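Reply to dn_fold:

You asked what the input looked like. This is it:
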Amino acid sequence: MSLHLFDSVPASVLARWRRELNASDFIKDRILLQRRIEKYLDQGYGQAFMKEHWIAAMIQNVLLGFDSETYRLSAWVVMPNHIHMLATRFENYTLPDIMQSLKSITSHKVNRSLKRHGQFWMPDYFDRYIRNAEHFATTVRYIENNPVKARLCKRPEDWPFSSARFRAQRNK
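and this is what came back:
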């Protein structure tokens, strides 16, 4: 799943992409739109609140706090203007409810800390079903390699707000 800050992709750019993707296959459109957004996000547009390490740590702590409560968190990364996470929801929780809770708690915490009001996250989020073990492993690599791809660090385990860092520290 991916969550994006409200200003990480300008509304005019999103609207143009949606107009361009007016094909009949909704799933293909959604995947293409997500790829465009991911490429755009790595350029660090918007206020990128999570470039402040204390904010990224706060968001990461919320993600970890839900682990074993509403989902099993397998991989994550908190980037300056978006989050990726791979989680398996528990049976009694719906994905929309989990995402609403994550977005609500994190936006209230950050807005209160920054003494600001208003929208923090984009209304939508992107999700994807994992098809098999190979797809799972590919998704973990994609998530954990995101800071390297965005040139924020040299190796995935160098990024402090990711499962790669946690895994590397646990294996020491």
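Residues 95-114 form the longest helix (20 residues).
Hope that clears it up.
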